[in-house]
UniProtKB/TrEMBL annotation:
Principal cellular location given in the protein's record: endoplasmic reticulum
The keyword Zinc appears for this protein: no
GO molecular function per UniProt: calcium ion binding; mannosyl-oligosaccharide 1,2-alpha-mannosidase activity
Subcellular location: Endoplasmic reticulum
Polar residues: compositionally biased ranges: 870-887
Identification of the protein by name: alpha-1,2-Mannosidase
Length: 1025
């Protein structure tokens, strides 16, 4: 046995000596030949410390906000547990409620030299982690992350006991956990072929209906078990783990295509049939090739070297196409199966370095580096012309892994510069206050609430090692091998077993080494200079995919469906918008409908932003509804409290319960607060009003907070919107938690109430607070009534304007449309008369008081109006065949004009019906009459005078005073008014820019004896409809 081990190790070390000689020669020549990227020792040490800080920023965020959960959610700053949040599909199979991130990251602490924290982490894992859980997990992920992490930490704990004299308490507890987990994974190998199932229940094994019927797994899932399982067997003395893993690798080897020697991607574990025959070196197959070579290095098993050489020759023959690696059909290897590459293939140059094939490693790495520079981060998949195919970037480590191995092999400082740029990109595009967040799309930079365990286990480990000198480490890395999860397994494991043998049949099956072009590779000395290899590829990506700077005109968070400019922009992008029955908008992007190619590309980005915005808002906790309170004086001189519904924000201080903010108002300048503020000292200790648009809500909040504001109110910039007719929403943030003041949102019409009040009283104090509810969670009746009443008042102006337009349409529908119009100038104003069908209408406008009166009446049989007037110019319009009254036509108006609030206000002022609610109608009549400025005593039926005209009891009168509508908050001081007026043109109107006089709508009902109950029935029917 000892002699057998000696001979195998002699062969292995002989190969490694040749390999290291080749790499050493390469390093010397590279150092002599490429000095343009030389990095000073000081800069390298600074980058090493920055990489260390990056690790601790993420590690502490996890430990303080997520542990003992499996992962950190960096945007929510909380822990992700299995089964407690919305399902993310297969990606959740990585989680098992076993403190995944800590187990996976423990050995990185040793690499960084933090032995005290490693000791603490090991104690936490021993104390808190157990695997007796009814949860289904991925066999592959649990093996490489959890089992590998436990084994590596056990080995390092004993290593530190022997060499550093610490952790004397440790008695193999981590290995016991690893053994327990190993036995729980073993049932996965119970398949017809011995190839493991993809998933396992940690408590019940395969004894669930879902798992018993499972059939498929990926090649990498089944072929990435041998290192961890063999290490577990050799550390515990239980051979079954290694036996199962060897059998699985043997079966996979048999399934290769005998002509091309390539492997497929997905297979049936019982029949051994290929389900997906596309072959590459990326997702679904990558680590199988890696473990073929590393099983030989770690275990000294020659058969794995033979297998790797066979596969490697096939990959370089069919899949490697210059610096690119493109998937092909395993049975038709000269035919590409897809036209894009995925980010996982970035590990391949590092594996080529271990193989000793430096030149193609340099080429592929250079191509990947240019893709990273083009898109800031390497997208999850990119096309052959280097455009983004899948935009995600979950902070994967594979590119850094290859960069580290190339630097170790060549000592070329160029790779330190590469690492520096990766570090800068991570800091700029992924760092958030609570760790590092995955990037959902490299084109938009939108974050995802996700930080996988491999970020701490691999990404920051390789980044630190790239800038660290071997003398800086407490470990001699030449004594260890990195697993696919960057866990450390000692090369000394090979002496613990003589299990590995090569059978006679397999020896005959293997090709001789002479038949393999890449069997024993030492870099050709003519190509040892990495710079000379990279130079021809210098502009490879930019030459095919030129960098184009896109100036975005509209971002999803700023989009407003009521803004005509925005609607035109999205139409130019090829986006059509449909309004669903529930008020939601449906967006459809059609490239062919875009105005130009650039517009189509911006439309795609806009849709992606909209999808991510929708997802992020759906997962955010509900923010409590807010309200704006202030006191004012009504027409009768009584003080009253006004409560306006306001929308909350997903950033800043949250107003709940008794937590409220009170202060005086001021207006931001510029109004939208999207650039540097003018005279920011005016905002100090004030509640600042801003207008929506041009930038994100949270950016506005940051600017006024910096100026010293105590709160903010964002006002909608679309005229006519109100909380009574538009659904309230919560303003979204950007994932950062730097805003500490409260900010609320007001619709346009709602804000006009506030601005009118401030116009009357510039010193008005306003309170922002949570919207008050009763103890049972229902809105109090007083708050509900006041909110609704003032919403009705604020929207009545625009509604009446629409009623006038609609009444004109009613007139136009009365028989054959023949219209006569006559304008007369009177002493005080102007009168316009119009005859349409059976109706006569006159519009009287009095310049002296700004009052407008519209009279609509049915003409009598002789063609005269109700006032006895004749049609102008003696024209007699044709008689209509219909007898429909304006009142009946009114019931046919669009539903949005006859909303319950508007209809109730309209009908109460007519005093034809009472409120249909069960409450005291007298109270509502009084309140609604105050709003409409109508004397409720008019119901007595006596005649009344309006502008000298007598009205009978059936006449209709709605009178609304809108004269105080303001363009913005105007100071009362005359000098300040003039100063304000000078820059008024630069301001955007918050409230209505139209200053209306009193609108009086008078409608003469044709039949004065019309039955009251009939009217009530018609109205009830309409409300029910």
């Amino acid at each position: 046995m000892d002699m057998h081990f000696y001979l195998r190790r002699k062969v292995l070390f002989g190969v490694m000596i040749v390999f290291m000689f080749c790499l050493g020669l390469s390093s010397i020549l590279a150092q002599l030949g490429d000095v343009s990227y030389a990095m000073s020792t000081e800069e390298r040490l600074e980058l090493k410390e920055e990489a260390r800080d990056m690790f601790y920023h993420a590690y502490r965020a996890y430990m303080e906000n997520a542990y003992p959960a499996d992962e950190l959610m960096p945007l929510s700053c909380g822990g992700r547990w299995r089964g407690t949040g919305p399902s993310r599909g297969d990606i959740d199979d990585t989680l098992g409620n076993f403190s995944l991130t800590l187990v996976d990251a423990m050995d990185t602490l040793v690499v960084l030299g933090d032995l005290e924290e490693f000791d603490h982490a090991a104690q936490l894992v021993v104390q808190d982690v157990n695997f007796d859980k009814d949860v289904i997990v991925s066999v592959f992920e649990t093996n490489i992350r959890v089992l590998g992490g436990l084994l590596s930490s056990h080995i390092l704990a004993e290593y530190l006991q022997q060499r550093a004299g610490i952790m004397q308490w440790y008695k193999g507890q981590l290995l016991d956990l690893a053994k327990d987990l190993g036995f729980r994974l073993l049932p996965a190998f119970n398949s017809t072929t011995g190839i493991p199932h993809a998933r396992i229940n940690l408590r019940y094994g395969l004894k669930t209906a879902k798992l018993e019927s499972s059939r498929e797994t990926c090649t990498a899932c089944a072929g990435t078990m041998i290192l961890e399982m063999a290490a577990l067997s050799r550390l515990t003395g239980e051979p079954i783990f290694e036996e199962k893993a060897h059998r699985a690798m043997d079966e996979l080897w048999k399934l290769r295509h005998r002509s091309s020697d390539l492997m497929g991607t997905v297979l049936n574990i019982h029949s051994g049939d290929w389900v997906r025959r596309d072959s590459g070196v990326g997702a679904g197959i990558d680590s199988y090739y890696e473990y073929c070579l590393k099983a030989y290095i770690l275990l000294g098993d020659e058969r794995y070297l033979g297998r790797f050489n066979t596969h490697y020759s096939a990959v370089m023959k069919y899949i490697s196409q210059g610096p690119m690696l493109l998937d092909v059909h395993m049975h038709r290897p000269h035919t590409n199966s897809r036209n894009f590459m995925d980010a996982l293939l970035a590990f391949w140059p590092g594996l080529q370095v271990l193989k000793g094939d430096i030149k193609p490693a340099v080429e592929t790495h250079e191509m990947l580096y240019q893709v990273m520079q083009r898109h800031n981060l390497i997208p999850e998949a990119f096309t052959t012309d280097f455009q983004v195919h899948w935009g995600q970037h979950p902070l994967r480590p594979e590119f850094l892994e290859s960069t580290y191995f190339l630097y170790r092999a060549t000592n070329d400082p160029y790779y330190l510069e590469v690492g520096k740029n990766v570090l800068r990109s991570l800091q700029k595009f992924a760092r958030v206050p609570c760790g590092y967040a995955a990037v959902k799309d490299v084109r938009t930079g939108i974050h995802e609430d996700r930080m996988d365990s491999f970020v701490l286990a691999e990404t920051f480990k390789y980044l630190y090692l790239l800038f660290a000198d071997p003398s800086d480490l407490v470990l001699d890395l030449d004594e260890f091998l990195f697993t696919t999860e960057a866990h450390l397994l000692p090369l000394s494991l090979a002496r613990n077993s003589n299990y590995s043998v090569v059978t006679i049949s397999e020896q005959l099956e293997m090709k001789s080494e002479e038949e393999h072009e890449f069997a024993r590779i030492c870099p050709n000395t003519l190509h040892l200079f990495p710079e000379s290899v990279r130079q021809p590829l210098r502009n490879m990506v930019d030459g095919v995919c030129p960098r184009r700077v896109m100036r975005r005109r509209l971002h999803a968070p700023d989009f407003q469906a009521g803004n005509p400019d925005h609607m035109k922009l999205v139409k130019d992008m090829g986006i059509s918008i449909l309004t669903l029955a529930d008020g939601r908008l449906q967006l459809l992007h059609t490239v062919a409908n875009a105005k130009s190619t650039a517009d189509a590309e911006e439309g795609l980005l806009f849709i992606q932003e909209m999808i991510e915005l929708s997802k992020s808002q759906a997962h955010q906790p509900d923010a409590p509804p807010q309200a704006v309170h202030f006191k004012t004086t009504n027409a009768a001189g009584a003080e009253q409290t006004v409560v306006i519904n306001a929308g909350p924000a997903h950033f800043g201080q949250e107003l709940r319960g008794n937590n409220k903010v009170t202060g005086r108002l001021t207006v931001a300048d510029p109004l939208r607060a999207c650039s540097d503020l003018i005279n920011p000292e005016r905002l100090k200790k004030r509640i600042v009003i801003m207008e929506r648009g041009d930038c994100m809500f949270v950016d506005k909040a940051r600017r006024i907070q910096k100026a010293g504001a105590i709160a903010g109110i964002v006002v909608d910039n679309t005229p006519g919107t109100s909380s009574a007719t538009s659904p309230m929403f919560a303003m979204s943030g950007d994932g950062n938690n730097d805003v500490t003041i409260p900010v609320v949102f007001l619709f346009y019409q709602d804000a006009s109430q506030l601005l009118q009040a401030v116009g009357q009283d510039p010193g008005l104090y306003v309170t922002l607070a949570e919207k008050m509810t009763s103890p049972q969670g229902k809105e109090s009746e007083i708050a509900k009534y006041m909110s609704k009443a003032f919403s009705e008042k604020s929207s009545v102006d625009s509604t009446l304007e629409r009623l006038k337009d609609s009444m004109q349409e009613i007139l136009n529908r009365q028989g054959d449309v023949q219209t006569t119009v006559n304008k007369e100038n009177t002493g005080n104003g102007e009168v316009t008369q119009m005859d349409v069908g059976d109706f006569h209408a006159s519009v009287e406008f009095d310049h002296s008081n700004g009052m407008e009166m519209i009279r609509i009446s049915r003409r009598d049989g002789s063609g005269s109006g109700s006032e006895g007037s004749t049609a102008p110019n003696g024209l007699q319009p044709p008689q209509s065949s219909t007898n429909t009254s304006p009142k009946q036509e009114l019931l046919k108006l669009p539903k949005d004009l006859l909303s319950p609030g508007m209809l109730r206000l309209y009908l109460e002022t007519l005093q034809k019906v009472r409120l249909l609610s069960g409450e005291d109608p007298a109270f509502h009549i009084q309140k609604l009459s105050e709003l409409a400025q109508i004397d409720p005593s008019a119901s007595s039926g006596g005649p009344s005078l309006e502008n000298g005209n007598e009205h009978k009891k059936d006449d209709v009168l709605i009178k609304v005073d809108t004269e105080r509508s303001v363009d913005s908050i105007v100071p009362s001081d005359k000098a300040k008014k003039e100063e304000y007026a000078s820059d008024k043109n630069e301001r955007t109107s918050i409230s209505s820019s139209r200053t209306r006089g009193e609108n009086v709508v008078k409608k003469k009902v044709e039949n004065g004896e019309e039955n009251r109950s009939k009217s009530e029935n018609e109205i009830k029917s309409h409300e029910e409809l």
